[in-house]
Write a structure and sequence with these properties.
The chain is 31% helix and 24% strand. The chain is elongated, with a radius of gyration of 23 Å. The strands form seven sheets. A five-stranded mixed β-sheet has the order 1-26-2-25-24, with helices on one face. Strands 3-17-19-18 form a four-stranded mixed β-sheet, covered by helices on one side. Strand 18 and strand 19 form a beta hairpin. It starts with 15 loop residues before the first strand and ends in a 7-residue tail after the last strand. It is built from 16 helices and 26 strands.
């Protein structure tokens, strides 16, 4: 169970660090829930990793976090009950559930399934403190405006990896007949005709996934036909379109650069299974490579990770795929003299995804030769470089481009104390710690928990020596 954040106000003695069993974590969580505000605490768990272990076995891939967030937002468009399978248990998805409940939706979770009923929604203004936690929280502005004709949503939060303005969202909603203005830190929108949105045409300046999904949801209940061009083509966009179609929407062109949407006056609840998380799959593929190991993973949709498969094959890895199961091997006996470095340039799908750039860079520090990494999506997605350098990695950065000097340039990784400052950068440090000599300690792992379901448990099952350490103030040790 992931522990929530609290604010440390009083503490007479410095906390000690313990490895806590899941049962005791649950007990401590209950104790913390009963604390008064004056006794509230900050729980800052850490990972400690002893590197050098080989990985082996099979790892199950969870449902896509990014798909789940947009689909959960889309349930606001639907009358009746929606049943979702494969929603990962993450801090981000739990935040989205809190957002839906703050609007009046009923959400139940049992046996790995989620039931959502938005018939009781009585507010169009979700809790600002929840919206500000995650980028995906802002997506609800589209469904709220489409179904109820108005919305007031705080500006979104998420990882600090660069500017992610809401200009595209606002421009698109205006093209659908909304009056939109920004005041008091919130985006206020209402249908100009006083009834609802109307179909229109809008071209995105950049194929933003979030803007594409938000406008798709809004257009599904607009009066008439909407044409959205230069849209995102990511698998998560296709996942959302399939869910909406199954709920009665009319969406054509998902996966291409143009969407044609015929609005419907009402959508209904449906049953849907979220697609597997391609970023988690890619992360475990890179974990096998960086530890020079062999593992299998499923379910995986090969076309979703083709960009990474091509790079790893070029580096010397062996990859096979059958019936949704991928096997990745970088065992020295199979790959010869070592893995070769490769160049990366991040770009929208089907190109190399920005969400795998930090993890790939960690691998490149252990490969032969020089590698060039160019980040074209987010201007601040290089914060992990500082932490990788603490392990001994030789990386030179100029703006959005990094030159990674591999093993031939004596870039040996040695364990150190590191700080995760964002989701994908944080998990890159985990991968580096698996390959480093000695012990690596990573703080700030709440960022990692936002996007990876039980990543430490999954890695331990594969043979990694990784522990989640939780500092427990002495009053809470009496159990």
């Amino acid at each position: 169970m992931a522990l929530p954040s609290f604010t440390l106000l009083h503490h007479q003695n410095p906390p000690k660090t313990y490895f806590i069993s899941p049962q005791k974590q649950s007990h401590i969580h209950s104790r913390l829930q009963t604390q008064t505000p004056a006794k509230a605490l900050t729980i800052d768990p850490k990972f400690t990793i002893t590197g050098g272990n080989k990985l082996s076995g099979h790892v199950p891939i969870s449902g896509s976090k990014n798909s789940a967030l947009s689909i959960l937002a889309a349930t606001l468009c639907c009358s009746g009950t929606t049943k979702l399978h494969g929603v990962p248990n993450l801090s981000d998805t739990r935040t989205m559930v809190s957002i839906l409940r703050s609007l009046g939706a009923k959400v139940e979770v049992y046996n790995g399934e989620m039931l959502v009923n938005a018939d009781g929604v009585g507010s169009v203004e979700p809790l600002s403190e929840e919206i500000e936690k995650i980028r995906g929280g802002f997506f609800v502005i589209g469904p709220l405006l489409a179904r109820f004709g108005e919305a007031a949503v705080a500006l979104p939060g998420g990882c600090d990896i660069g500017a992610r303005p809401v200009d595209l969202y606002i421009g698109g909603l205006r093209a659908l007949g909304a009056i939109v203005e920004l005041r008091d830190g919130k985006v206020h929108a209402q249908a100009a005709n006083g009834r609802g949105l109307v179909g229109g045409r809008f071209k995105l300046d950049y194929p933003s996934v979030g803007a594409t999904e938000t406008l798709m949801m809004a257009a599904c209940m607009a009066d008439g036909v909407t044409v959205l061009s230069n849209v995102a083509k990511e698998p998560e966009v296709i996942d959302l379109a399939r869910f909406l179609t199954g709920s009665g929407a009319c969406v054509e062109g998902a996966g291409s650069d143009t969407l044609f949407i015929r609005g419907k006056s009402q959508l209904h609840g449906s049953e849907y299974a979220v697609s597997p998380d391609r970023v988690e799959a890619g992360t475990f593929m890179l974990a096998a490579a960086i530890t020079r190991s062999s593992i299998s993973l499923s379910p995986v949709i090969p076309s979703h990770v083709a960009f990474l498969m091509d790079k790893l094959l070029a580096a010397g890895c062996k990859i096979t795929c059958a019936h949704g199961t991928l096997e990745v091997s970088a065992v020295p006996a199979n790959v010869g003299d070592g893995l070769r470095g490769f160049d990366i340039r991040t770009c929208p799908f089907p190109g190399f995804p920005t969400d795998l750039q930090p993890q790939a860079m960690a691998l490149l520090t252990t490969c032969n030769g020089l590698s060039l990494v160019e980040e074209t999506v987010f201007e601040n997605r290089m914060s992990h470089v500082r932490e990788l350098r603490k392990l001994g990695a030789k990386i030179r950065v100029c703006g959005r481009t990094a030159l990674v000097c591999g093993k031939e340039e004596e870039s040996a990784l040695l364990g150190s104390q590191l700080l995760a400052t964002d989701l994908r950068g944080g998990v890159s440090l985990v991968l580096a710690g698996l390959a480093a000599e000695g012990v690596t300690e990573i703080s700030g792992i709440a960022h990692i928990d936002r996007g990876y379901e039980n990543i430490d448990a999954k890695l331990r099952f594969l043979g990694a020596d990784i522990k989640r350490l939780i500092p427990i103030p002495s009053p809470l040790l009496q159990f």
